[in-house]
């Protein structure tokens, strides 16, 4: 969801009987994305180990469910939690590593 949901949007969804379906859809999508991020980071032992180090500090890598705190809170204030940029960096590194073998294979095929 790119644009924030306004009260008018929520009122319209409720009037149309679509609010429950809207919420379920977005919760399912958020859970799917979190599971994808979790699997991606846990695939790399060195990145998974960073989940136990500050500022993230989980007791074990498997404790992370893939959730990344939002950029802003409900008032629009910027989220200053130190774990957010650390988690974003871990996911970005895992995504970068995931793409590397594909690039290498493509280069070998071209040769």
What can you see in these coordinates?
This protein has 111 residues and is mostly helical. The chain is 60% helix and 0% strand. Helix 2 packs across helix 4. The chain is extended and about 50 Å long. It starts with 6 loop residues before the first helix and ends with a helix. The mean pLDDT is 89.
Please give a handful of descriptors for the protein shown.
111 residues, single chain, 60% helix, 4 helices, mainly alpha
The low-pLDDT segments are none
- Percent range for helical residues? 55-70%
Question: What string gives the helices and strands in order?
Answer: HHHH
How would you describe the oligomerization state of the chains in this entry? single chain
Largest sheet: none
Amino- and carboxy-terminal Cα gap: 42 Å
Q: Based on CA inertia axes, which overall geometry fits?
A: extended
Helix/strand-derived class?
mainly alpha
Number of helices: 4
The overall pLDDT average reads: 89
Beta fraction: under 5%
* Whole-angstrom Rg: 18 Å
């Amino acid at each position: 969801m790119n644009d924030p949901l306004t009260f008018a949007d929520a009122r319209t969804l409720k009037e149309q009987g679509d609010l429950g379906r809207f919420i379920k859809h977005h919760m399912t999508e958020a859970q799917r994305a979190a599971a994808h991020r979790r699997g991606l980071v846990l695939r790399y032992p060195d990145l998974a180990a960073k989940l136990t180090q500050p500022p993230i500090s989980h007791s074990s890598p498997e404790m992370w469910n893939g959730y990344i705190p939002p950029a802003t809170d409900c008032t629009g204030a910027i989220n200053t939690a130190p774990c957010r940029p650390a988690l974003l960096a871990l996911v970005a590194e895992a995504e970068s590593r995931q793409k590397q073998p594909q690039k290498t294979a493509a280069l070998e095929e071209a040769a």
